[in-house]
Amino acid sequence: MFTVTYAQLNAWLTAFLWPFVRIAALVATAPAFGHTSVPTRVKIGLAAFATLIVAPTLGAMPQATVFSAAGVWIMVNQFLIGAALGLTMQLVFTAVEMAGSLIGLQMGLGFATFFDPSSNSSAEVIARFLNTIALLAFLAFDGHLQVVNALIASFESVPIGAGVIGATGLRTLVQWGGAIFSAGLLLALPVVIALLVATLSLGILNRAAPQIGVFQVGFPVTLLVGLLLVQLMLPNMIPFFSHLFDMGVDAMERVAGSMR
């Protein structure tokens, strides 16, 4: 007769549940994995499948029951670590959307918005366009596999335990947010400067020849210039996105390493 003791059941639960919480938190927050178009059952199944592969490779678990105070605190820590790692890569796409919003605002398309299911809010057309290009490039460069690899490596840098997450890790995440938003501004800077020059030129033309009617031709001109510049930037955007993804993976490793 097959019997299972409470100690064995607790060991099996801790070996599966604690890694599962960290992996599920990353799946829910990371780009591509956490998109709203991916069903919740698929996310849970993917996290469970990854846990079954990763759990046997982990070392000894802390001596605590799953539903004790220490066990719940460990679970909370694992959730925060996984969410922080997923947010680290998600900031890359947020910076790309910010660059698209700045470009669309300068083009006069700030009013052209539609519902974004990934954030449950309205998003500008150019921002959604750049985000889609970035997401396709992310999948083409195997960024999702690099994220999974960084997650698995985090179990070595931050073993499962009841220790409090260090403030250095959160500070590293905040610094990464500032750095990646600077990269987003650099992405939008060429188009923004060119549109600013076009707007200044239209202002000078309006002063020189008011009969032309700059207010009637201003919007089509800025829109045309902006679309042409975005088209010219597309070949150079893909290598830039690849660089951002590499920076994001490195940032995930730094954030995980500083959370010890």
In short:
By secondary structure, the chain is mainly alpha-helical.
Largest sheet: 2 strands, antiparallel
* Topology pattern, helix = H, strand = E: HHHEEHHHH
| Overall pLDDT metric | 81
The proportion of residues forming helix, as a percent range, comes to over 70%
Q: How many beta-strand runs? A: 2
Structural class: mainly alpha
Strand content: under 5%
The global form is elongated
**How many helices in DSSP terms?**
7
Describe this structure in words.
It contains seven helices and two strands. With 260 residues, the protein is mainly α. A two-stranded antiparallel sheet has the order 1-2. β1 and β2 form a beta hairpin. 31% of the residues are buried.
Q: What distinguishing features does this structure have?
A:
two-stranded antiparallel sheet; elongated; 260 residues; mainly alpha
Strand and helix layout:
Blueprint: H1 6-29, H2 40-54, H3 69-107, E1 113-116, E2 121-124, H4 125-140, H5 143-157, H6 167-208, H7 214-257
Antiparallel strand pairs: 1-2
